[in-house]
Amino acid sequence: MIVVLFLSLLLVIANGSTKIPLSEVYGILSDQIFHGGKELEAGIWSRPGYQIIWNIRLPRALFGALCGAGLALCGAVMQALVLNPIADPYILGISSGASSGAACALLLPLPFFHGQYQTTIMAMLGALLSSALVYAMAKFAGGGKLRPVTLLLSGTAINAVMSATTSFLIFIAKSSESIAAVYNWQMGSLASAQWTTLLVPAFGVLFGGLVCIFQAGNLNLMMMGDEDAAAMGLCVKHFRLGMFVVCSIIVASLVSVTGIIGFVGLVVPHIVRLLIKSSNNRYVLPLSAMLGAIYLMWADSVARTAFGAAELPIGIITAFAGAPFFLYLMIRKNHGGEL
Questions:
Q1: How many C-beta atoms lie closer than 10 Å to residue 206's C-beta?
Q2: 310 pairs with which residues across the strands?
Q3: How far apart are CA 113 and CA 115, in angstroms?
Q4: Which of 62, 141, 257, 308 lies deepest, with the highest CB count within 10 Å?
């Protein structure tokens, strides 16, 4: 998977409106990383090629890898936390909560923070609020117990409320430019990827991802059921709440920059489980992160090149791929298939 990830990175960078040979991509990257650009200064590599590879396509490819890894990781974690095979940040309403928070920052004149950090912080608050509401509603509907079905239904309800909130903010907004930005942002895109915008998502994904992977053993306990996990010494309530917070931080750090990209966290972990024939999170989590990175890099490559100069929002591609898979999982579950 690591080899495929590295090759995908090179191929995605080479692919675009201007085709660049793989040898040039590899040469410029290795020159910048290992030699500090000496070959570029000596005239071995062209300046236009360097600008396209290093300053445009590489940040975008890395951004796609971060988004795919973070969303897939959160999907795998949530499926283990709630014992539901169709759980992911999009379906449980966390992405919509982050979207509403970011829309507040983009459309309303808020007096605190500025720029990307304002959007990121508001997205994080929206994601945490959405997670808290889903958690509280599911506990109340389940009579004090957190049941997978009630959690999924609560997530669907909060998803609708947060989406309606975003639509209302668009309705009352006065700036046509801000409204257009939010509309485009709701469909998901990696077009804003630059070296300067990579910092917050990279921190969120790397920090949250390490926490999730180190908790893989406890997530395996959670898959045994709340009672068995508690009998093994795990504080189920605090652990589930803490992991929801970690997932909210990861999702918010991504959604605040990319917009809503759905179904990645649903599709990728299941593909990994089918490939390795195991549900052990010690393997599922890191492999989901790598496969998610590969998947979203290629999805973005299709979005950039499928319609020539016009760029297709990446959220459309992931929805077209993920929605049928979502239906397949529900049909398979209802017919007694194992997930």
A1: 14
A2: 307
A3: 7
A4: 257
E strand or H helix at 52: none
State residue 199 phi and psi, 5-degree precision: -60, -55
Longest dimension (CA), the chain: 71
Domain extents for the chain?
Answer: 59-334
CA distance 36 to 53: 15
Spatial neighbors of 111 by CB under 8 A, at least 6 apart, are none
Distance CA 223, CA 238 (A): 16
The C-alpha atoms of residue 88 and residue 85 are separated, in whole angstroms, by 9
Which pair of structure tokens corresponds to residue 15? 């692919």
Tokens of 288: 């989901």
pLDDT (tens digit per residue) in 256-299? 788 888 889 988 999 999 899 999 999 999 999 999 999 999 99
d(CA 265, CA 181): 25
User: Would you place residue 1 in the very low, low, confident or very high pLDDT band (cuts 50, 70, 90)?
Assistant: very high
Write down the architecture of domain 59-334 according to CATH.
Answer: Orthogonal Bundle (1.10)
Report residue 268 as tokens. 């990728």
Q: What is the DSSP letter of 55?
A: I
pLDDT (0 to 100) of residue 339: 47
Q: Which pTM was predicted? A: 0.88
